[in-house]
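Consider the following assembly input.
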Amino acid sequence: GNSVTQMEGPVTLSEEAFLTINCTYTATGYPSLFWYVQYPGEGLQLLLKATKADDKGSNKGFEATYRKETTSFHLEKGSVQVSDSAVYFCALSIGGSNYKLTFGKGTLLTVNP
Amino acid sequence: EAGVTQFPSHSVIEKGQTVTLRCDPISGHDNLYWYRRVMGKEIKFLLHFVKESKQDESGMPNNRFLAERTGGTYSTLKVQPAELEDSGVYFCASSPGPGVIYGYTFGSGTRLTVV
């Protein structure tokens, strides 16, 4: 079946620190990969996505590269801000009739000033 | 444009009672999804509607859960009778077409606590 494994949190960083949240996946087909973010009190928002190998998704200073050879999609940001504090979810979707998302467990990030 | 709206935002019920969650998708979005996150676990897919039809309900845990989408607009998810393990956050999402292409818009969720 399909599954997503992401690093367990919580992750606590100081402002301007470098962030990496690891994500690896197992998929029966060729997945599209996503990072979603949930800020406190809000719904999940799409942060970035990549639909084929070697694609790089980027948004708000975050980046992730679709690595088929290592089945990974690690999230990175060079300099985090307090406003980046949130829960981050890695997810995949296999094309076809379902279009459902398979999520990881989520990683809570806290950025301190 | 209004987002995906879910209510109630919180619900606390006793074991054995019935609860109905509601999701109002973005107007015009034919695809509607329900997901659930149990504490500390992954967000799990429950089911997918296209208009009023259930396209995929493979994630529904058991027959205590009933989802409907009459008229292809809003959807309800009823849990009857509720059990302790049903506690979690229930998310709804909608998309105008395939979510991979068009993107999913999520609601802020309903936190259900069964005591």
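Chain B has a mean pLDDT of 93. Ask yourself how this observation constrains the way the partners meet.
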